[in-house]
Design goal:
By secondary structure, the chain is mainly alpha-helical. It is built from eight helices and three strands. The protein is globular, with a radius of gyration of 21 Å.
Length: about 230
């Protein structure tokens, strides 16, 4: 959850910087204000939640509020390390999944392919990742964590320890586990949808075909003779 946010570099939410506590208060006050403008339910009637006065039917807004709070918590802890939430997402995804192509990484993180190239360029400049020719497709590159990237991933994970607990303060352990399981199912579904949209044949059984990685839009290939164009 902490991994899927922000731009590099960025100020969270496109507004002035706020501490995580301030951001959470801000979004909660905003949500409370919207709730206060709702017309009261007629006596004896409740919303879809079964709780009188509780918001219903606004899944997108509620997820957005939670995402803002999550990003604020992550940003506050990652910035001292020189990482954005998206950069942390790359490091943590590679640590969990092993080397991936740029396209696979972009799909896993739901990031535009061109934006992923920029992000990997920056991480490669910091010697946190490296591009290695794919052994079965010379036109593609596998993204590997460097030794420095592995160390940074461990430091970032330690810095983020407790952030999820803060975010999910209102929930007991069983509720947290259930929420994470449900969100994982939703995320997996939309990652699959994104993969099919990008490659309509991805859902069909077929031998792996050679695919070219996106070109570097920044034109950084002159930095090193061994740097992929």
């Amino acid at each position: 959850m902490m991994a899927l946010r922000g731009s590099m570099p960025h100020t969270p939410f496109g507004c002035s910087r706020l501490s995580s506590e301030g951001m959470i208060i801000f979004v909660k006050d905003n949500l409370d204000e919207r709730q206060s403008t709702r017309k009261p339910e007629p006596s004896g009637k409740t919303g879809r939640t079964g709780r009188t006065g509780q918001p219903t039917g606004r899944v997108g807004q509620l997820l957005f509020v939670a995402q803002q709070a999550a990003q604020a918590l992550a940003t506050e802890r990652l910035e001292p390390l020189g990482l954005s939430p998206r950069a942390w997402g790359v490091l943590s995804t590679l640590a969990e999944s092993g080397p991936l192509t740029q396209i696979e990484l972009a799909t896993a993180m739901s990031i535009d392919r061109t934006a992923m190239v920029y992000l990997l360029d920056d991480l490669e400049e910091q010697s946190l990742v490296e591009r290695v020719r794919h052994p079965r497709d010379r036109r593609a590159f596998l993204i590997h964590l460097t030794t420095g990237g592995q160390e940074m991933q461990r430091r970032a994970a330690a810095a983020l320890a407790g952030a999820a607990d803060t975010l999910l303060t209102p929930l007991d352990p069983a509720e947290r586990e259930h929420l994470i399981d449900l969100l994982g199912q939703v995320a997996a579904h939309w990652q699959q949808v994104a993969a099919v949209l990008q490659d309509p044949g991805a859902g069909q059984a077929r031998p792996p075909a050679a695919r070219a990685e996106p070109a570097h839009p920044r034109g950084r290939g002159t930095r090193s003779a061994n740097r992929p164009a």
